[in-house]
Design a protein that fits this description.
It is a single chain. The chain is mostly beta strands. Helix content is 0%, strand content 52%. The protein contains no helices and eleven strands. The strands form two sheets. Strands 2, 4, 5, 6, 9, 10 and 11 form a seven-stranded mixed β-sheet that branches. A four-stranded antiparallel β-sheet has the order 1-3-8-7, with no helix packed on it.
């Protein structure tokens, strides 16, 4: 059974940073593309970033390009999302996602 557990969210001031983690189990992690998606209040899911199995290819939404960095540690079955220079519009529940499965999410709130 695929399981994804996100952590690392919280309340941060504009311009601040957070690092999200996604602990994965139940599948062969090192060959799986991993996604980070988010859902802001009243809005649909937005794909934020994706990384391929060996970490050699990444992609970002235009809204986060240059501020967020996706990475992974295949030895730890964990994916990460480093978020810098956070803006109020980044406020959302962040999920990691493999295929159609996503975790329970972690809340990120950017506010002064």
């Amino acid at each position: 059974e695929v399981q994804l557990v996100e952590s690392g969210g919280g309340l941060v001031q504009p311009g601040g940073s957070l690092r999200l983690s996604c602990a994965a189990s139940g599948f062969f992690f090192r060959i799986a593309d991993m996604n980070w998606v988010r859902q802001a209040p009243g809005k649909g899911l937005e794909r934020v970033s994706v990384i391929n199995g060996d970490g050699s290819r990444t992609s970002y939404a235009d809204s986060v390009k240059g501020r967020f960095t996706i990475s992974r540690d295949n030895a730890k079955n964990t994916a990460y999302l480093q978020m810098d220079n956070l803006k109020p519009e980044d406020t959302a529940v962040y999920y990691c996602k493999k295929g159609t499965v996503r975790g329970q999410g972690t809340q990120v709130t950017v506010s002064s």
